[in-house]
Amino acid sequence: MSLARVSTASGEEFAGRVLPVRTELREVLPWPGLRRGATIALRGSTSLLFAVLASATAEGSWAAVVGLPGLSVLAAAEAGIAVQRLALVPRPGTQLGEVVAALADGIDLVAFTGTATLGTAQVRKLSARVRQRGTVLLPLGPWPSADVHLRCANTRWHGTGAGDGHLTHREVDIHATGRGSAARPRSVRVCLPG
Amino acid sequence: MPTRLIVLWCPDWPVIAAAATAGLSAHVPLAVVAANHVLACSATARAVGVRRGQRRRQAQRACPDLELVADDPDRDARVFEPVVAAVEGLTPGVEVVRPGVLAVPARGPSRYFGGEEAVAELLVDRVAEAGVECQVGVADGLFAATLAARRGLVVPPEGSPEFLAPLGISELDQPAERLPGRAELVDLVRRLGVRTLGEFAELPAADVLNRFGAAGALAHRLASGLEERAPSRRRPPPELSVTEEFDPPVTRVDVAAFAAKAIGERLHAELARRGLACVRLGIRARTEGSTELERVWRCAEPLTAEGVRDRVRWQLDGWLRVAGDGGLDGGISVLLLDPREVIGAEALQLDLLSGEAETSVAERAGRALVRVQGLLGPDSVWRGVIGGGRGPGERVRLVPWGDPPVPERPAERPWPGAVPKPTPERLVTGPVPVVVLDGDGAEVVVDERDELTAPPRAVLTEKGPPRQVLSWSGPWPAAALVRLQVVLEPSGEGGERALLLAGDGTTWWVEGVYE
To answer: Which of A102, A158, B131, B178 has the most Cβ atoms closer than 10 angstroms to its Cβ?
Structure first.
């Protein structure tokens, strides 16, 4: 991906350029993958974040997760993430906006918590930055201006019994809502990890 | 019209620095080697046939008692600092070109001391007092003045093109400058039949640019006796300078190296964002005792991020060494990088284009992560490395970005008692105690045979009502612990919840949350 090709701040150059993502997730996204420059808000599930990151990192993209101190890198690896290209910034402190902006300059997928602590001006600046850089921004929390909101519901676990077996996977509904081409709500039931 | 410069050159500087550091006499046969080739050698070694560029083996054959020292640019810079300080005591405006070479604008001091020759003599004497031999040259432009210094010449004003013309084309390639691609360029030009700088200078500039790119065009300017950069250079706006405060102040060389990396990256990124690159860099520092230190580095080539970083590190290293000798009042508390001279994108364009194509995704990512380290500190950006172990936390080692990713325990060994995957996505760091209850409301614990005293029916956390257990797996004994997976009844629209519990036989706590 050559930055030299970015000619406008509008991100026109990235139109139609997507990073790969699991087939089932493509069903609920308005694009055939994760559109560069898009903002996709994720609610309430680290396994959903892993599912979003897996294919792209496996194919060479870099990802960063900001503000999840307990995140298990082992679980990330099991979910198919190339962990050698996964950077963690567990404690951004008061500089969340600066940290996310710095990451957006060079990392393809940037996820972060603490969305509510950012001011309106910071949010606008960040959105402009990711559009220009072709970064996929993944706020883990409310983000009104997101292109798509994904949220998990109706988790059902499999594998455990009365002491025997072990957890193998869960089934979960992923609901997508959004703006523009994503305005029609869509849902899909997926296995995580799967 | 290039600036008239006095250049002071210390011959075989890497050798002098290595000898001084190792406590050897400068008269023993000594060679500094890099990548198995001789980078520099002492005069005594040269006398018996050791040559620059020789393979290490060849050099040892020529001189069996040759002392070999590994190349270390940091050492070269550190030992050079007292020489710079000595010259600075004589005249202001000293600029370090690279360890072993410094430049002074000729106009002021030659007027003050009565002529360029007089200044040259004074400089040689002053540096000799610091225990170092040097040669001085005067000419228009840095490139010509440096070559003049190697020959101990004063080239008359406006005489640089005539001085350069008969010199061999290989003068463009000075290994000590560590210019990437210059050796290949010289080789290519020579194979095209161009033998001297004069012949190269006669080629039309546009053709050279087309054929050899920006690096070739720059070499062509040098060979022609022109200033190393086009006259369109800009005076940088003051807001381009980058400041970093250190609390606690920097006193150690390794901390300084890290600081240099972070601030260097910041400056470079700031300049690159505006399509600029720095060719003259001011490095300023303030100590705890409010002493102001300043040094200017001049460069023939636009500084890369690594170039900035190295110079800052060398300079801090030099200052801290002085501090170690008791010459500095405390550590360095403020560091400021001040780009004194920048060149614009038009001069850099080709470099930028070729650089961009080569800049891999990984390099861009690395730069972004280093910027975050610059914001938050070195221990703020981590990467996980997966190794062996039984618990989900044991198997991952977090390594600060920039450190080699090596696992703590080998993954290959069998780890009996390990919890089967999937691993909980979130590990709980602080202890979150829970109570596991059976159907009668009694606590479920683990007996001597590592079995549960009763089937678990509910889990009680510190907050909220007890949650019914739908199913469970385990326990898995591992060392002094047992682990248990429980699936809890749905609450809200999220659905079922699964936890990994750990217990010591009497109490339970949450180790991980599947979320």
So the answer is: A102
Write the residue in A62, A108, A167 that is nearest to B514 by C-beta. Answer: A167
Residue numbers in A near B364 (CB within 8 A):
3, 105-106
CB contact under 8 A, B515 and A172: no
Of the residues B312, B328, B347, which one is the last residue of a structural domain?
B347
Kindly report the pTM of this predicted structure: 0.53
Q: What is the ipTM of this complex?
A: 0.90
Which residues of chain A make contact with B512, given a CB cutoff of 8 A? Answer: 72
Closest CB to B471: pick one of A89, A152, A162: A162
Structural domain contains residue A185: no
Residues in chain B within 8 Å Cβ distance of A86? 383-384
The domain total for chain B is 3
Question: Are B405 and A89 in contact (CB < 8 Å)?
Answer: no
Residue B171: Cβ-neighbour burial (10 angstroms; 0-12, 13-18, 19+): middle
Bridging pattern class, strands A63-66 and A109-112: parallel
Range of the domain at B487: 426-514
Identify whether B200 is part of a domain: no
CATH number at residue B254: 3.30.1490.100
Half-sphere exposure of B282 (CA within 13 A, CB side): 18
Domain count within chain A: 1
Upper half-sphere CA count for residue B414 (Cβ side, 13 Å): 2
Q: Which of B364, B395, B427 has the CB atom closest to A106's CB atom?
A: B364
- Residues of chain A in contact with residue B483, where contact means CB-CB under 8 angstroms, are none
**Is A57 exposed, middle or buried, given 0-12, 13-18 or 19+ CB atoms closer than 10 A?**
buried
Residues B133 and B268 in one domain: no
A92 in any annotated domain: yes
pLDDT, one tens digit for every residue, chain B (515 residues) = 678 889 999 988 999 888 888 888 777 889 998 888 888 888 888 888 888 888 888 888 888 888 888 888 888 888 888 888 888 888 877 888 888 899 888 887 777 777 888 888 888 888 888 888 899 999 998 889 999 999 988 999 888 999 999 999 888 887 666 666 778 888 888 888 889 999 999 988 777 876 777 678 778 888 888 866 543 334 556 677 888 888 888 888 778 888 888 888 888 888 877 767 787 888 999 988 888 888 888 766 677 778 888 888 888 887 887 666 666 777 888 999 988 877 654 444 333 333 333 346 776 787 788 778 777 877 788 989 888 777 777 888 888 776 666 666 666 666 667 788 899 999 987 778 999 999 998 999 998 888 899 999 999 987 778 899 999 998 988 878 899 999 999 988 889 999 999 998 889 999 999 99
- The domain that holds B95 is classified in CATH as 3.30.70.270
